[in-house]
Write a structure and sequence with these properties.
The protein is built from 8 helices and no strands. With 236 residues, the protein is mostly helical.
Length: 236
């Protein structure tokens, strides 16, 4: 019941996140990125359905090809009941030297559907990597060490913290999208690509988390300093 990632729930999560960003930072670049993540999530759901769907023209082509090869090899008027067996024996005996090419041809058609789906998944994963770097570009200028300086940044410490949290959440949604592509695609190459992308998203998310920790320390120190200044001096 809960052993597969549901695309509709992932889309719902992305939409809710985009709404929160638009409400907190209306008209900002991050709000545009949030809207784009929603579009990417919807497209990913459609792509995942296409990947999971059988490609029937490929599945039908192999047996049809084999039947055509046999028909062409046996294409002569039947003269006796033994003619078919003699012709089959001659055909396979003559093709013994080229058996390796025949086997490679069969392998090519058998794996053709998987390679089609792998190509589609790999292309989609490259798009996710680009989106992850776009989110990272939005958080790069947000330096916690500058937030306390006058005129250094238009964001307060609280706003910057929320901004960084949103960047981290968007990165988490992207990392889950990759799983949509491979949960119905038993391909080692595509799975490895998704794992690499998830490692990239985790690494970028850790960079954001480090900024959040630094920002929390700066805010805590500022609150302690403010409390100390407001504390009345003890009478001597």
């Amino acid at each position: 019941m809960f052993r597969a990632l549901r695309a509709d729930k992932l889309i719902e999560t992305a939409e809710q996140m985009s709404q929160r960003i638009n409400k907190r930072f209306p008209g900002s670049g991050l709000s545009s990125v949030g809207n784009e993540v929603v579009d990417v999530t919807r497209e990913a759901a459609k792509t995942a359905e296409e990947i999971a769907r059988p490609i029937w023209w490929i599945r039908v082509s192999l047996p049809v090809l084999l039947v055509l090869v046999i028909i062409l090899a046996l294409w002569q008027p039947l003269e006796s009941s033994l003619w078919v067996f003699n012709k089959l024996y001659q055909f396979f005996d003559a093709a013994r030297g080229g058996a390796i090419y025949f086997i490679l041809l069969i392998v090519y058609f058998v794996t053709l559907e998987m390679r089609f789906k792998r190509h589609k998944a790999m292309k989609a994963i490259r798009g996710l990597r680009a989106m992850a770097h776009i989110i990272d570009m939005h958080q790069l200028p947000k330096d916690p060490a500058r937030v306390m300086g006058e005129g250094m940044t238009p964001l307060t410490a609280e706003q910057m913290g929320q901004y960084l949290h949103y960047c981290q959440e968007l990165m988490a949604v992207l990392s889950k999208i990759g799983q949509l592509y491979i949960q119905d695609l038993p391909d080692a190459t595509a799975s490895a690509a998704v794992d690499q992308f998830e490692n990239l998203a985790t690494s970028l998310s850790q960079k954001i988390w480090q900024k959040i920790i630094i920002l929390d320390r700066i805010r805590a120190d500022a609150e302690m300093l403010e409390a100390a200044e407001e504390k009345p001096a003890e009478p001597k």
